[in-house]
């Protein structure tokens, strides 16, 4: 979080005032459906990530006078918060734990580390501590580890090295304190190595995290003068062997960005694999600051809550092990009216009870939950540690859906209606699960509600979603779930070509009957496509498409037809032909975070041609062509066609041409991977 925001928040928190409780907002009218049924497809065979113990998190800050208060901890516990981060955003890089000071900032009473840990324990959470990189030392951080885990026995597992250290001025903007003369990513990475060595010498069991830039968020993609690559490339290449997780921060600034999460996390994993090398799969991903953070309002009202629930579910389903809301308390900001309610422009989960500087608007009483609080509470009741997310699809953009399978076989389905004025009936279909008859348990939170309501209503296949609502239904399976085989282990892919791959997996444990075979499914949205089956623990898969990302799961089927849970997901991307009559190389030459200059080198490996046409597609809807040169460029929808200039069409055998373009993007920038020259798929180099 930028320090400017922290200063404003800390100033507001100095004036905490106890106010009378607000009048409860009117509950949303449970009107009759006024829209066609939305088709929701739940695919219990399409397993995604398991729900982590630390998934639901939040940030605490040393400028918050209520950090150590019992009622604050009790509120967080009731929301299901399982991880608390300390000492608070950019304050981390000015904070000295031993004397509890932050030169240049405000430190509130009763916010020292031991007080924080008492609150963590009362909440029933784990702690994540950010060591001071900007103005601290490795020795200071190691002493903190000794105090926490050796002297006090707190068992703090997760330790970050610094906070948003790319904001130290190296790329132009500066909000993060950094006393190092060298502010490059290489210098940061060298210190991460030193910190990791010193801190693990104090307690070898801890996990060390390094700061990365988030794909498509500044300064991701930018290479500063004198650097060997982007921040992420340099940090991972040096510090990769020493770290256990990486740190992302995300303030999307809009309510419709959850669709970008899968690419965001996949690109991060690719960067980790490329930078950290062999064994990098052990490195986890934590989103240690997240807030919907819109300038148009909605931070304390229902649109922000709906976006929060959607983002939390999507991030965790993609394997992020903690998503930490910014912040527990933050302070009043720009006040507006959003969907019939006052939005206080406050980034906190709970009210700080503060007023505007003019005193004309005051927040509700201290620790009153804002709408995003109920999003975290709904998430903790929907997806519990040890559950497994499964894939869901809907045919209505205003309705988002997520699902998680529980160890006892129950299935929880979270339905989010973002429409301001339409109640949507939903028709829910299931693959890989037959729901029991009868009404399911239903949890609902509507616009302006001061609590999540519980009821038994509708059916497993039919519900009605009020406008601006979150609804969770818990569906029980029909028939007995006893004696089924265990889930196969984590699959891996090998021998991946443009059209084939070999998928292998650890064997499943048998239930009451022997395992007869394994089935491999490709999972796309709510639909499963069986790629094949095997009596062993590997399968050669064919008929794949070049340059395509595949996510597959394996299930075990026993001799009586009983089916296991899905394995953890495997994602791999096919390549392009090893040999072709043409080859293409795309390079990102200069990137500025929302666009880039690309160069495409085309080589003709076949017979001479007198004219050529190159075709490719943008992988994502947030990508587009800005301009192009050295050829005639056109775009229709996501498709780009490039035709040689009138005088530059001849390509002899072995001949080449270089063309260039400006590509624009407003989300994770997955580069085009498949190119055709005169209709032939080229080898992409």
Automatic annotation (TrEMBL):
Location of the Fibronectin type-III domain:
487-577
Keywords assigned:
Carbohydrate metabolism, Glycosidase, Hydrolase, Polysaccharide degradation, Signal
* Keyword Hydrolase among record annotations: yes
Signal sequence segment: 1-28
Matching entries from CDD domains are given as: FN3
InterPro entries for the chain? CBD2, CBM2/CBM3_carb-bd_dom_sf, CBM2_carb-bd_dom_sf, FN3_dom, FN3_sf, GH, Glyco_hydro_b, Ig-like_fold
Annotated CBM2 domain ranges read 575-685
Q: What is this protein's record name?
A: Cellulose binding domain-containing protein
User: What is this organism's lineage?
Assistant: Bacteria, Bacillati, Actinomycetota, Actinomycetes, Streptosporangiales
Q: Which SUPFAM superfamilies match?
A: (Trans)glycosidases, Carbohydrate-binding domain, Fibronectin type III
Is Secreted among this UniProt entry's keywords?
no
The cross-references to Gene3D superfamilies, in alphabetical order and at most eight, read: 2.60.40.290, Glycosidases, Golgi alpha-mannosidase II, Immunoglobulins
Which Pfam families does the record match to this protein?
A: CBM_2 (PF00553), fn3 (PF00041)
């Amino acid at each position: 979080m930028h320090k400017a925001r922290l200063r404003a928040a800390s100033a507001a928190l100095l004036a905490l005032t106890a106010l009378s409780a607000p009048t409860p907002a009117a509950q949303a009218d449970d009107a009759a459906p006024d829209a066609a049924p939305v088709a929701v497809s739940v695919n219990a065979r399409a397993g995604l990530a398991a729900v982590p113990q630390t998934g639901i998190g939040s940030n605490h800050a040393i400028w918050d006078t209520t950090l150590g208060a019992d009622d604050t901890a009790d509120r967080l516990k009731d929301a299901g918060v399982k991880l608390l981060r300390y000492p608070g955003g950019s304050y981390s890089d000015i904070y000295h734990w031993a004397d509890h000071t932050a030169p240049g900032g405000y430190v509130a009473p009763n916010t020292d580390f031991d007080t924080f840990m008492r609150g963590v324990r009362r909440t029933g959470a784990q702690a994540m501590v950010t060591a001071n990189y900007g103005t601290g030392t490795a020795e200071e951080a190691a002493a903190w580890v000794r105090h926490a885990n050796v002297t006090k026995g707190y068992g703090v597992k997760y330790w970050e090295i610094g906070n948003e250290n790319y904001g130290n001025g190296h790329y132009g903007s500066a909000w993060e304190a950094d006393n190092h003369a060298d502010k490059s990513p290489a210098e940061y990475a060298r210190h991460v190595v030193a910190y990791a060595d010193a801190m693990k010498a104090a307690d070898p069991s801890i996990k060390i995290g390094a700061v990365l830039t988030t794909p498509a968020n500044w300064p991701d993609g930018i290479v500063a003068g004198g650097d060997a690559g982007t921040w992420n490339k340099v940090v991972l290449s040096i510090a990769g062997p020493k770290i256990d997780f990486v740190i992302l921060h995300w303030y999307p600034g809009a309510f419709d960005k959850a669709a970008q999460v899968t690419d965001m996390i996949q690109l991060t994993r690719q960067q980790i694999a490329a930078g950290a090398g062999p064994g990098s799969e052990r490195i986890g991903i934590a989103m240690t600051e997240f807030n919907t953070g819109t300038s148009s309002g909605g931070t304390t009202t229902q649109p922000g809550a709906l976006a929060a629930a959607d983002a939390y579910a999507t991030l965790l389903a993609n394997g992020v092990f903690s998503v930490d809301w910014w912040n527990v308390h933050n302070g009043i900001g720009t006040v507006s009216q959003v969907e019939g309610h006052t939005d206080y422009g406050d980034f906190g989960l709970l009210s700080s009870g503060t007023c505007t500087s003019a005193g004309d608007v005051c927040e509700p009483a201290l620790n009153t939950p804002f709408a995003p609080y109920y999003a975290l509470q709904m998430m903790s009741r929907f997806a519990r540690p040890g559950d497994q997310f499964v894939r869901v699809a809907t045919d209505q953009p205003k309705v988002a859906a997520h699902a998680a399978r529980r160890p006892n076989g129950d299935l929880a389905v979270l339905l989010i209606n973002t429409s301001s004025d339409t109640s949507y009936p939903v028709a829910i279909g299931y693959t890989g699960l037959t729901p029991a008859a009868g009404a399911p348990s239903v949890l609902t939170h509507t616009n302006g509600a001061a609590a999540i309501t519980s009821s038994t209503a509708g059916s497993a296949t039919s519900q009605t979603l009020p406008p601006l609502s979150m609804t969770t239904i818990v569906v029980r399976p029909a028939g007995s779930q006893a004696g089924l085989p265990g889930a196969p282990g984590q699959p891996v892919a090998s021998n991946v070509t443009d059209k084939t791959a070999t998928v292998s997996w650890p064997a499943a444990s048998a239930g009451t009957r022997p395992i007869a075979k394994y089935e491999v499914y490709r999972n796309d949205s709510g639909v499963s496509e069986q790629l094949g089956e095997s009596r062993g623990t590997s399968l050669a898969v064919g008929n794949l498409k070049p340059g395509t990302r595949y996510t597959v799961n394996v299930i075990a089927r026993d001799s009586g037809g009983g089916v296991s849970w899905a394995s953890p997901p495997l994602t791999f991307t096919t390549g392009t032909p090893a040999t072709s009559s043409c080859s293409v190389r795309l390079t990102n030459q200069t990137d500025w975070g929302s666009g880039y200059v690309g160069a495409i080198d085309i080589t003709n490996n076949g017979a001479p041609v007198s004219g050529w046409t190159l075709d490719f597609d943008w992988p994502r809807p947030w990508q587009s062509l800005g301009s192009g040169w050295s050829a005639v460029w056109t775009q229709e929808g996501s498709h780009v066609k490039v035709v040689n200039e009138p005088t530059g069409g001849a390509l002899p055998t072995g001949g080449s041409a270089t063309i260039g373009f400006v590509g624009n993007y407003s989300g994770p920038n997955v580069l085009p991977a498949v190119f055709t020259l005169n209709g032939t798929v080229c080898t992409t180099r």
